[in-house]
């Protein structure tokens, strides 16, 4: 089976590639802008006919689209998260209409949740900002394309290699750079929100199952931990696994706008279990331990360099 992975150099994409390469009989093709890519494409700027030519030469049985932007201005988010999936679908219809498309969406597409309730795929989508709105536009492009396609709406990914652009990776980097003395201080924003954390390795397994499942799949499947976890609990878990003996200072005014707008997030993952036989296999504690272990082997930020 030939599987083309787009966005393979990113956090989710890297884990998807690693998981697929471990599957016997799977030929993984890496697509993207990198010079090392086997299939050179740029979903943010390539016209459909260029993408179609690249896809025709790759001849994939399935395409897993992990390309996406989590930060930047609204134009950047729209180019990658909305235009990208739309032009990919147009190109697939021309070049490989029989290939299955697995597109990674985001639970941010749902917007604010109701405390105590899990959100099913049939729930109304009310994204709270440009990120969720552009991811939702990408989902609409995929589900309306007529392709054999499924969108995996991923919760908050956590686990080895988490980047500093997300909370788990940012807290890990701050703890690593703060030292372990009792006088160390790590300053964070508002930690009162609840999030649905899912191990990145479980996301990769879901992508594999979705790419290889027989027959048609539901258009959208939630991929999450299935529980709303207080963000403070995640931070406490990282503090414990890091052996941090200093102080965590929570400065509510410095929290992100999205945290203020979306205080509760929890996905109902029943449909993924029924359609794919998938359920999360890593506990949050195991995810945090793997995240810290991977960070310990990463290069430390040079002395005096700005924290991100």
Protein described:
- By secondary structure, the chain is α/β, with parallel strands linked by helices.
- The protein has a domain at 2-161 and 198-226 and 268-281: Rossmann fold (3-Layer(aba) Sandwich), CATH 3.40.50.720.
- The protein has ten helices and 13 strands.
- The strands form four sheets. A seven-stranded parallel sheet has the order 3-2-1-4-5-6-11, sandwiched between helices. A two-stranded parallel ribbon has the order 7-10.
- The protein is globular.
- The protein starts with a strand and ends in a 12-residue tail after the last helix.
Keywords:
10 helices, two-stranded parallel sheet, 13 strands, alpha/beta, 7-stranded parallel β-sheet, Rossmann fold, globular, disordered C terminus, 39% helix, 308 residues
Q: How do the strands and helices of this protein lay out in sequence?
A:
Layout: E1 2-6, H1 11-21, E2 27-32, E3 39-40, H2 48-58, E4 62-65, H3 74-95, E5 100-106, H4 130-143, E6 149-154, E7 156-158, H5 167-178, E8 185-188, E9 194-195, E10 197-199, H6 200-212, E11 220-223, E12 229-230, H7 231-242, E13 247-250, H8 257-261, H9 270-276, H10 284-296
Parallel strand pairs: 1-2, 1-4, 2-3, 4-5, 5-6, 6-11, 7-10, 8-13
Antiparallel strand pairs: 9-12
Helix pairs in contact: 1-6, 2-3, 3-4, 5-7, 5-10, 7-10
Concise structural overview:
The protein is of the alpha/beta class and 308 residues long. The protein is built from ten helices and 13 strands.
Distinct helical segment count: 10
Low-confidence stretches: 298-308
Helix percent reads 25-40%
CATH C-level class of the domain at 2-161 and 198-226 and 268-281 is Alpha Beta
The main sheet comes to: 7 strands, parallel
Order of helices and strands: EHEEHEHEHEEHEEEHEEHEHHH
Number of strands: 13
In terms of structural class, how would the helical and strand content be classed? alpha/beta
Named at the architecture level, the CATH assignment of the domain at 2-161 and 198-226 and 268-281 is 3-Layer(aba) Sandwich
The N- and C-terminal alpha carbons lie at a distance of: 40 Å
- The CATH H-level superfamily of the domain at 2-161 and 198-226 and 268-281 is NAD(P)-binding Rossmann-like Domain
